[in-house]
Write a structure and sequence with these properties.
heterodimer, A: 332 residues, mainly alpha, MetI-like fold, 2 domains, 78% helix, B: 271 residues, 10 helices, 74% helix
Chain lengths: 332, 271
């Protein structure tokens, strides 16, 4: 690596850090300007009415309503940099601890959905694009359009109706069986409870990547070099492998890494349907319950995941694309 | 029928259907709230094609009203978002380097927070309810269109015929109106129409989570989140039909968008 590259790397890192700072400030600003009274949404109007002024003041202090916004942000950011994410007001536990537990539940489900939707979507896209205009193409395009028009939570509801209520083969919700001690939960239990949420996420995630890949593949199949390959007598699969996959792998990869944010968004909805105690449900609870520290923590973590995905895509680009690789070597 | 006529047919059919839903729902907005305990929990039948719920409300009327609300809100927010995108995109391209990097930074920032999470945050900031959804969707959906318009204007600025026009003494305003606008407008409109389905889906989603329209309103997200409590009892119709109709509406918005794209694109005239 030469100096220029190192400088560029640092500039990129600085930009990401600046973006994360921006995200946390924006999130804090949005939470601070809210007219929602955390006491009313958590304690309730009736209970509030029967309390003494002293009690109410104590609660206001607990929810941080007496401190100005700038001071709160500064305190939060300063603690955050030193590794202290604050205490969740709803769970009454450190935010880091809550996040760790929820992420452990969500992460493998999201990862499974991300990989599945990427691989299946890519394969379907190649299949449809190579057979443009035929029934395979119509099938994949039709499916993708249908899925792109379906909200993730409705698909989750349908899966729930079919597999849990009607066929009774999979559990209705939660991450572990109801009424079982934490120590008795087996890996199989966790897997069974994760199938439907992961399936709902994957089924909707497929459409985007399939449609894009199909478009690119169809473009390649109409190109002159494919026509020439055909004239040379290359078989279809050979053509796809030699000319198709190499050309469409990069855009598909970019899209796949960009879809991290969508998978995260989808998981919020899907977890809500299945009462799955993951990051998404924690975000909803924190939002409904005015738990500012927890919501901030979740926002920052999700932003780190999204920017991390983008950075990883850039990095892989350099490794996979021979043009960029050669360019870097030449620049040396 | 050739391809173009077929496209026009689909365009008209989907537009008609969506208009009908929007209009009927508006007419039925009072009827959707009528409760009648003598007809509660009915399975779908001829008189109540979508069945009734635990308060004896006609689910068909309720669904259409909810969708009508979604469509009107979706069109409003998509339009607001597209205009915002246009202003930001053109601003980034013509206001100089500082404005460009500021706007690009803002785009990256908005894209860095998952849509749903940002919607939750904005909706929370606006105190939930109608304004929460409206502002939230407007402020989350502009980024990709803004990026597109920015790129387009930048490209146009450096294109030869624009530079020649400038050398020939045309003013900036003339160039913008005569040479740039005809290029940007079709992009803008297709971008706008392609925003509709997203806006509607996100409105339903955010309401479903409890951050959107209030539970008293017959919104489609409210209907679906209420239905969850009755699924285990086997009242599948409470979720299945409203959700399916929502899907159809979004799908038709997509058809509408693609038809318009195809009609605007001069390259496809002879297909």
């Amino acid at each position: 690596m030469d100096k220029r590259q190192i400088v560029r790397g640092f500039a990129g890192l600085a930009r990401v850090l600046l973006l994360i700072l921006g995200v946390s400030f924006a999130a804090f600003f949005l939470l601070a300007v809210s007219p929602i009274d955390p006491l009313q949404s958590n304690v309730g109007q009736a209970a509030l009415g029967s309390m003494s002024q002293e009690q109410i003041d104590k609660l206001r202090e607990y929810w941080g309503m007496n401190t100005p916004m700038a001071v709160r942000f500064w305190n939060w950011a300063w603690d955050f940099i030193r590794g202290d994410m604050g205490v969740s007001l709803l769970y009454r536990r450190p935010v880091a601890e809550v996040l760790l537990e929820k992420t452990a539940n969500s992460l493998w489900m999201m990862a499974a959905a991300w990989v599945l939707s990427g691989v299946i979507g890519f394969a379907l896209g190649v299949w449809a694009g190579a057979n443009r205009g035929k029934w395979q193409d119509k099938l994949v395009t039709g499916y993708s359009l249908l899925m792109a028009s379906t909200p993730a939570f409705f698909l989750a509801l349908v899966l729930l109706m079919v597999f849990s209520v009607w066929l009774k083969v999979l559990p209705v919700g939660f991450a572990v069986p109801v009424g079982t001690a934490a120590a008795d939960v087996t890996l199989a239990d966790r897997l069974v409870h994760g199938i439907l949420p992961a399936a709902a996420l994957s089924l909707t995630g497929i459409s985007n990547i399939a449609l894009q890949t199909r478009e690119k593949m169809a473009e390649v199949m109409e190109s002159d070099y494919v026509l020439f390959a055909q004239a040379r007598g290359e078989k279809k699969w050979t053509m796809i492998r030699r000319h198709g996959l190499r050309n469409i792998a990069l855009p598909a990869m970019t899209l796949q890494f960009a879809s991290v944010s969508e998978i995260f968004g989808g998981s919020v909805l899907v977890e809500q349907v299945f009462s799955y105690p993951g990051l998404g449900q924690a975000a909803v609870d924190a939002g409904l319950g005015s738990d500012v520290p927890l919501l901030l923590g979740i926002t920052v973590v999700s932003a780190v995941i999204v920017f991390g995905g983008n950075a990883l895509a850039d990095f892989l680009y350099g490794i996979i694309d021979p043009r960029i690789r050669k360019g870097r070597e030449r620049g040396r | 029928m050739n391809q173009r006529k077929k496209t026009i047919f689909w365009l008209a059919a989907s537009a008609l259907f969506l208009l009908a839903v929007a209009f009927l729902g508006y007419l039925w907005r009072d009827e959707a709230l009528v409760t009648d305990f003598s007809r509660k929990n009915l399975a779908p039948c001829l008189k109540y094609p979508f069945g009734t719920d635990f308060m004896g409300r006609d689910m068909f009327v309720r669904t259409v009203t909810g969708l009508s609300l979604s469509i009107r809100l979706g069109v409003l927010t998509a339009a607001a978002s597209a205009i915002f995108a246009g202003v930001m995109g053109i601003g980034a391209a013509v206001l100089g380097k500082a404005a460009d990097s500021a706007i690009t930074f803002l785009i990256d920032l908005v894209m860095g927070i998952p849509h749903i999470l940002l919607l939750v945050l904005i909706s929370y900031a606006c105190g939930k309810g109608f304004w929460g959804v409206a502002v939230g969707i407007t402020l989350t959906h502009w980024t990709s269109l803004a990026r597109l318009i920015r790129g387009e204007v930048m490209q146009l600025k450096s294109s030869q015929y624009i530079q020649i026009a400038a050398k020939l003494g045309q003013s900036r305003l003339q160039i913008a109106g005569k040479h740039m606008l005809p290029h940007i407008l079709p992009q803008f409109f297709t971008g706008l129409i392609l925003l509709f389905p997203h806006a509607i889906l996100h409105e339903a989603s955010i309401t479903f989570l409890g951050f959107g329209l209030s539970p008293e309103q017959p919104a489609i997200g409210v209907i679906l989140s209420e239905s969850m409590r009755y699924l285990a009892m086997g009242r599948w119709w409470l979720a299945a039909f409203p959700g399916a109709l929502l899907m159809i509406c979004v799908l038709l918005f997509r058809v509408l968008g693609e038809s318009v794209c195809r009609l605007i694109d001069p390259g496809s005239v002879h297909e």
